[in-house]
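Hello K.,

You asked for the raw outputs rather than the summary table, so here they are, unedited. I folded two proteins back to back in the same session to keep the settings identical. This is the first:
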Amino acid sequence: MTKLSFLQNQDIIDAIHVSHTKQPDSQMNNEVLAFGVFSKSMPADEKTHTAQTTESTADLGPVSEWLSRHFPKNEAEAFTAFLSSSALKFSGKPKETLVLPAYGQAALPCIVLVGLGKEEKITSQVLRRAAAAVIKLCNSSAMPVKTESVRLQLLLNKSIPSPATQDSIPLDALFCAIAEGALLSNYKFNQRKTTVGPSGQPKKREVPTVSAVSVVLPEGMTEGEVEAISKKQAFAETLADATHAARDWVNDSANFITPTFLKTTAASIQGLSCKVLSLEEAKAMGMHCFELVARGSTTPAYLIHLTYTPKLASATPSEKTVALVGKGITFDSGGLSLKPPASMELMKIDMAGAATVLAVMQAIASLGELKTTVHGIIPACENMPNGNAAKPGDIVTSMSGQTVEVNNTDAEGRLILCDALTYAQQYTKASEIIDLATLTGASIVALGKVAAAAMGTSDAMIHALKASGEQAGEKLWQLPLDEDYAPLLKSDVADLKNAGAKGEAGTIAAGMFLKTFVTEGQAWTHLDIAGPAFTSTETPETPAGGTGFGVRTLLYYLYCAS
């Protein structure tokens, strides 16, 4: 686990002084000190008209001024001369990094610059990614020195304009984003790699080298501002830990992450009540769609129901109750509508919705202080093609009483979710229901790996979730659920079929199917996370693999949305 702390500017100045005088407790020679640098428009008389022309340059003045005031004179002058060199190829664009020469001063920290882009365009996500870019650099072979400790002084001025309102962005939000970015970047899944070779010799297992991150606050902070920012430390740490947990579960293999594993993990979370239904119990309650999918595998299936109840002694509970429902297909072969091998290889990730819900519930239990009652519901099973498996053309009665023609056994996620949604409405009486699922490949065609598709019955709820996603650095894009799409699911032999026409509004058709099981007046949002739940292209804050998408959005929604 990465150690996180918030430091005031004077703490860094004192440490530099101690380090330069080489007192015994000096620690700065093993650290990286990273500064954020804005870009600015290049003066007209400096622009050229070549193909390499850039319209902006790095605004290095604040960094030079800070170094001149707080570093020893000779070193500060050397750094300032380097920064003013015309050969310096650093523009300050977002995520760009530059390592400054050490000038032989081992007692001083290694200096890294990271670009923030134009000051008037700064957002929490820009700072989140800048912090992540620094940590990624420090963990890479491109870093000339290896360090375990990084101090992020990304903002030298506490007055930052907001591009949306032109008001100041809340300082606690800015520095929480910096902390999140650093922690989110410092991740590596290697739990299944051994540390001993075939002959007993030790093997090195690749792990992040950074183990401690300090977020440095600007000069001139008031006690109240420092206190407000410090209160965000637990939120940033818990958010990152929960995201990492979801990533671990998605990255691990299906022979380890089974429905039984999800059940055991859920039951182990302290501070939550946990109810588990066996498949037989779920079937007895009328969850025949869930049972139809689960019976194709010999692996036991479960309906998992976690509940967080506010502590009445510490807070008056909110009237709002939220139910989170996560698709928990721990492996998806497609059933008898078998996937081709290339499409099946990564189907361990089909429980990403369940991983998100489980991680969020774990985070809520850790943080507490939430006035809202929250339920986490996970239908967990495999989709396999044994002799008992669902057959294309089967008709099944859902928990809601509606009949479904199964024309595609590989559209199984909506079958287990429809019963879970009915269960959520009947047994939690939630005022809001949010489901997350890696539901359709069509959402990847439409939105790629960048955004999740959002659909539902309440525009206000979707807009609030989108705003929380913006805060968290996760994008949601709303798709329509107009009744004009209902004919896509028309069945001649049942109330509806589980899959629409191939190549026609596949993501919306899946959403329309789920909407059929949501009662009139129920606020409900469906998030199809098939695209952003797993990526082969990393960003500074998201290594390749499972991303933990949705964890941050839901935690921001539950804790920060008005």
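The second followed immediately with the same parameters:
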Amino acid sequence: MPTNAPDSVARVPEHLVERRVADPYPFFAWLRRHAPVSAERKANGTTVWQIARYEDVDALIADGRLSKRPERVARYVAGPPGLNRHLVHSDPPDHTRLRSLVNTAFIPRRVVALEPVIRAAAEELLDRLDGRARIDLVGDFAGPLTFRVICRVLGVPDAMNTPELRELLLATVMPTGAHTTPEGVARTNRELHAFLTALVALKRAAGAAETADTDLLGALVHACDGVDTLTQEELLSTAYLLLLVGHDTTLNLIGNGTLALLQHPDQAKRLDAEPGLIAPAVEELLRFDAPVRDATFRAAAEPVEVGGHTIAPGDVVSLLIGSANRDPEKFDSPDVLDLSRTPNEHLSFGRGPHFCIGAALARLEGRIAFPLLLERLGQVRLAVPAESLTWRPTRVMRGLATLPLETLLTGSPSMTTPAASVQTSEAPVFTTVHGTTLVITLNRPAVRNAIDMATAAALDAALSALEDDELMRVGVLTGAGGHFCSGMDLKAFPEHGIPTVADRGLAGLTRAGRTTPLIAAVEGAAVAGGFELALACDLIVAGKSAFFGLPEVARGLVASEGGAIRLPTRLPHHLAMEVLLTGDRLPAARAEQHGLVNRLVPDGQAVIAALDLAERIGRHTRDAVTTVKRIVHTTRGHDESTAFTLQDPISNRLMTSPQAVAGAQRFTRRAT
């Protein structure tokens, strides 16, 4: 007899659940084997069913008994208010009407006509990367390329196609930094509505009827103003959807696909040697690590039986596309990347009435991007260990936050070098560049990034490089393997003892008077010297499960590298003394309540949030930012009169500079 009780949810092993953002495929394999149809009751009372096998996902993805309308589920938050009347959240006949209006922009002849535009944009972006020692394939190539293309399709003016707009759109599905607070969410929604309203007004002012044949947004505005039935809310919602999904899916295809080729250089070499393989190669990259992990929203409109269970009306149904694409009942050797795989009936673009309307455009972008990357990037490799890559923790999409690569000297391994000869970085510290931010990663995950002499020297060199590089505005300090740092590796000093200041050990790192802002991105443990390293930073971003501690007292030692000095200035006195005297852990949530942590974010997002903060700081001049930090450090602990005396010579050097005078003039003009 079919069951519909949420207690049919499987007890998935905890280690698989913990890793399902970074690597969901073991999690999916367990579900297919043990619980192909399972239910979970959420805290708000909603029941969510997970469907894991290809046969069931394929049958349900086009089943009309599953509705796309979020209002069928009480307490379900669909997206930004006022921007949910679009294709993804509609059923026939509304869906049919909306799709017919949008479909004209994605007919084959119009997509094919975009090929020279896409190729020129890709070439231009790759030209900018020539000579760079390190690049972020997501931030420097995939993101700008795909966003430029969808803006061209929609008819978004170049002046409005900005990194800030892309950040604003992504914040609606994966908020970070200032976007995470209730005030930040409200501000994001206001700014997004204001942008879309201004864009539509611009199209109307330009004469939407005149551009209806050349850009999609002009056609939609014309439909809204003419005889076709398209409301203003549907117009704004559709523009939002196409701007977001129209580039995010393809961004993930290029990012995930490039990572797959780096990890399977035999297949990259094959594609490089056989250009005619590109069409099936794109299909296989879509299957192997799908840019869409779960199908978009669906809820049962009537009882639906599947796998011996009955899904009740109002229950949410999560169709696990990433799992279906790796189902051995459908695909031979599904965990093997085979660029010549045929047939390849993956579900990455869905099926039926809600088949991805931009599938042809995404495929074309992939067919252009991958050969160009193989040709132009040359000899590159991951700049960080694969397990240290950060994946964006969204429910529907699967994509990398960044994909840092480093170029290699001639004769070094490349994308097409056999896998056995490729080594990821084994250095105790490695660095990656993100715009004007240098990310410094401690890389001894086996010992929670404890610092030995080699690590101390490498970290000192990285921090000095940050200080000396005039192009770098901000540094982010983090750790590999899910932990920040557990302090000094005492076992590494059996003869020589703890490094001293003269040895440039941990003491040198926490006491150095550096002026470039440094943000600690903390996951897991930041204890002992690791906590003192974090305290030496200017800002701290922490995952919700992170914790701090100074357990030295339990070992008969003392926190001598800043813990006993800095902590009482960052926390209420009695709380600081409790941490110092008991050696107990200080959870990140409690640290955030008392202002020690600037941002508390979901686990796995500390680096993303730190980069968001760094980008905001990096908008300002290096001189202004470093002067602020120099004043704060120089005047700390002095009475007010002495502090002003110390401040004035420092600030005067900046305030009389040409850039400060120009900045003051710009501010005055804006104020008046």
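The first strand starts at residue 37 and ends at 41.

Happy to rerun anything if the numbers look odd on your end.

Regards,
P.
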